[in-house]
Amino acid sequence: MKKSNQRRSELAIFGGKPVRTMKFPAYRPIGEEERLAVDRVMRSGILSRYLGVWHEDFYGGPEVQAFEREWAAYFGVRHAIAVNSCTSGLLCAVGALAIGPGDEVIVSPFTMAASATVPLWYGAIPVFADIEPEYFCLDPKSIEACITPRTKAIIVVDVFGQPYDADAINAIAKKHNIKVIEDCAQAPGARYKKSFAGSLADIGVYSLNYHKHIHTGEGGVIATDDDTLANKLRLIRNHAEAVVEDKGDTDLVNMVGFNFRLTELQAAIGREQLKKLSKLLSDRVANCNYLARELSKISGIRSATVRPNTTHSYYVQPFLYDEKVIGVHRDKFIESVRAELPATELRELEGTQISGGFVKPLYLLPLFQKKIAIGKNGFPFTSGSNPSTQSYGKGLCPVTERMYEKELFIHEFMRPPVTHKDLEDVVEAFTKVYAHRDELR
Ligand SMILES: *Cc1c(COP(=O)(O)O)cnc(C)c1O
């Protein structure tokens, strides 16, 4: 074929003009209020006030304690316990539930890795259940099939901002006398019926890391209504072993503590962030509703449904992609959309904020494939007093694998302060790639 006869593609992935080059605006939940709050703490001279011994300051300083009170009141829980990350909060939760070697904890393969790996630190075995094809949270039926006499807890995840099926899963837990830990890092402000995510299980854990809806740079909060658990959680947060004797606590199970303390500076920021959550969330949800409506007009693309009687907080917005209808593999299509749209300010190095698949099913990580976790002898998988027979082969969770490999994509274009015009550009990029889909085959 002669070169002059070749029609140059309009798609940016093949060198055409992209729909947009001006970066999307940065998500900046931190503002003047937080700056003033930090200034207040700086002037006080007390950047943290914890003591890791049984003393008034065992519970932290005034900002930490005020932050905890305000968090508990907002989310309707009896105890809010500030920690330095959601990961450390999840560790405290596993510890407080007296989980140990020989125990099994049912986890999700489709989440940030920490929500599935924390049982390992207590010598317990993560057992992966599969997810729901509509909501991507743990599937109650799959959970039931994973329960054994060793099962001590389930770590559910409100993934993407969708609360887990609390009625069904809490009932299963009750029936088998096991506990539920809710990882609601992605779902602050989401609701299940009238209750907030984070208050649905025995223990809920929020994240305040930089990427979350509201943040303190790094940070987390543990929520529970149970006084005994709250006490253990606070002990594990702050050097339990050095505190229990003087405090008069005699239950020593997992009372080996850490330093998981949030600073006064972060707590002061967190108090201001909490005031902003509801507005930040409603703007985000409105943007998602617009994109759900517009992108679902493309045949083969469908906004994921929201569980009845819940609200979604859209940490990311999930869509389902049908390769049979569009005739192009999801990854090729999403790569083409990426080429049409720019990155977001402050996150330039990550590129355009859209991707296919979320995370590789966690049981496929080398940690599980090689069964090397704590030490070099396979503990807790194959060594120790109670070796497990758990296998982590490909095919273990077919729904998760399908979502990862071809059916799901997620984006973050909905973070305020994007404008209507910004969102229209996103829709235009999809419409353009769809119109030219034959060139992608
Ligand atoms: C972000 C996240 C975490 C970890 O939060 P950190 O505060 O960074 O430890 C855990 N689980 C989920 C689902 C998350 O999205």
From TrEMBL:
Family annotation (InterPro entries): DegT/StrS_aminotransferase (IPR000653), PyrdxlP-dep_Trfase (IPR015424), PyrdxlP-dep_Trfase_major (IPR015421), PyrdxlP-dep_Trfase_small (IPR015422)
Similarity section: Belongs to the DegT/DnrJ/EryC1 family.
Entry's Gene Ontology BP terms: polysaccharide biosynthetic process
GO function term, MF aspect, one: pyridoxal phosphate binding
Keyword Transferase: yes
Coiled-coil intervals, chain numbering: none
Residue positions, PTM N6-(pyridoxal phosphate)lysine: 212
Protein name: DegT/DnrJ/EryC1/StrS aminotransferase
Keywords noted in UniProt: Aminotransferase, Pyridoxal phosphate, Transferase
Active site: 212 (proton acceptor)
UniProt keyword annotation of Transferase present: yes
Organism, as annotated: Candidatus Komeilibacteria bacterium RIFCSPHIGHO2_01_FULL_52_14
